[in-house]
Amino acid sequence: MTAAMRIVSVACAALALSACGIFGGDDDDAELEPLELVKIETKLDVRKIWSTKVGGDAEFLRVALRPVGDGNRIYAASRDGNVVALDPESGKTAWRTKLDLELSAGPGVGEGLVIVTAAEGYVIALDAASGSEQWRTDLSGEALSLPVIKNEVVVVLTIDNLLRGLSVFDGSERWLVEQSTPRLTMRGSATPVVVGNLVIAGFDNGRLAAVDITTGNTEWETMLSPPSGRSDLERLADIDGLISAVGQDVYAAGYQGRVAAVASESGQILWAREISSFEGVSVDWNSVYTVSEQGEIVALSRRDGEETWRQSSLLRREPTLPVSFLTTVAVGDLEGYLHFFSNVDGEPVARLRLGSAAISADPVVVADKLYVQSDSGTLAAYEVPPPKRQRNAPDIADEGA
User: Fold this and answer.
1) Domain membership of residue 112 as a residue range
2) Residue 24 to residues 6, 15, 29, 31: CA-CA distances in angstroms?
């Protein structure tokens, strides 16, 4: 999703379109076209093991609907109100619940609940075992980040910069944290991450904050992406993408700002690099991965933030956040392709196509499988088969036969 499509301002969008009409030409249009894919040599055997239709179309809506797992099942939701629980091995449906609302984010899973949010501002809790509705709460604000559940608290961040802690038992509000909202923001919100007893959240004003998940007390705030420039457009500094954590270190990115590592106990910035991203960051034990606003896939050293590789083959293809999967990072794009790049040097190793609909939700890894949900509401599971065993010598059992 391009930056222009995410700016929440009809006036700015109209102005941008007018400017294109006045100043644009065939050459400018060509420069804005997605980079054409070139043939690659397949070096990794990635196979789709099942796919299923979760629900209706959500293309171009920039909602936060992506699958999640709890070790036993995979849960997914669609824009038109379907929430499903699936067997991770076969894709067989364990239960399906149809809600009377258009959904905007979820699911989140924990404490025996599956939590989704609706465009109208509702938070709905379903029983994870059966799919039956347990409660719903009206927050009067749309959520575009995944709900987070821990310590009997459901944490929800709405687009008006309100971070709420709700009781898992009845959805009642336990605490509220509010941040200032700039005049102009991007459409989207960063899904909070829990480290110990702290929930780390990013806001549209460029601030990262740590909140005690039990009490709602703010433990620290850090300006991750300081706004700069004279116009509201130039001062956009939203933290909208995925926030990740390894141990006590938190990693986040801001639009027109920085990718940074932050100490979760103090908010101290450990290192920062000037990279603008609204997709956020993902991590593995060695690297931090992000995607620039133009669509470059970038890998940084987790230790000091030094760039280790950069892949430009998906420029302007609106790639998702790269997600670590086995020895690769997996990335979806606007034409429904799923790309796999080596996590060592960024070279392409495989490419598949889920369908013609865009993949705007980040791929999700649960155990040894990769799950991808397209904007058409199709969910698919992928795996890399283990190498075949070479029998150069007889088994012990064979020797005794």
Assistant:
1) 3-25+39-386
2) 21, 13, 7, 11
For 11, list phi and psi in degrees, rounded to 5. -65, -45
| Chain position carrying tokens 């644009």 | 24
Identify which of 139, 147, 209 has the alpha carbon closest to the alpha carbon of residue 177: 209
* Local structure of 10: helix, strand or coil: helix
pLDDT of residue 234: 54
pTM of the model: 0.87
The amino acid sitting at 214 is T
pLDDT at 186 (0 to 100): 56
Q: For the CA atoms of the chain, what is the radius of gyration?
A: 21
Residue with tokens 């997914």: 76
- Answer with the residue of higher pLDDT: 394 or 358: 358
**C-alpha distance from residue 205 to each of 165, 304, 314 (Å):** 20, 26, 29
Contacts of 286 (CB under 8 A, 6+ apart): 301, 302, 343
pLDDT at 286: 94
Q: What are phi and psi for residue 122, nearest 5 degrees?
A: -85, 150
In a domain, 355, yes or no: yes
| pLDDT for residue 301 is more than 90 | yes
Residue 81 and residue 101: Cα distance in Å, rounded? 5
Residue type, 194: V
Return the closest-CA partner of residue 378 out of 82, 116, 1. Answer: 82
3-state secondary structure of 190: coil
Output the pLDDT for position 258. 84
Whether 391 is covered by a domain: the verdict is no
Residue 323 within a domain: yes
pLDDT digits (tens, 9 = 90+) for 19-66: 444 344 455 555 689 999 999 999 999 999 999 999 987 665 667 899
Whether a cis peptide bond, with omega within 30° of 0, leads into 107 is yes
Number of domains in the chain: 1
Most confident of 23-27, 329-333, 395-399: 329-333
Residue 236 is predicted with a pLDDT of 57
Coil, helix or strand at residue 229: coil
Residue 205's SS3 state is coil
End-to-end CA distance of the chain, in Å?
Answer: 62
* Mean pLDDT along residues 83-105: 96
In a domain, 392, yes or no: no
3-state helix, strand, coil in the chain (%, to 5): 5, 40, 50
The CATH number for 86's domain is: 2.130.10.10
* Token code pair at residue 397: 């059992």
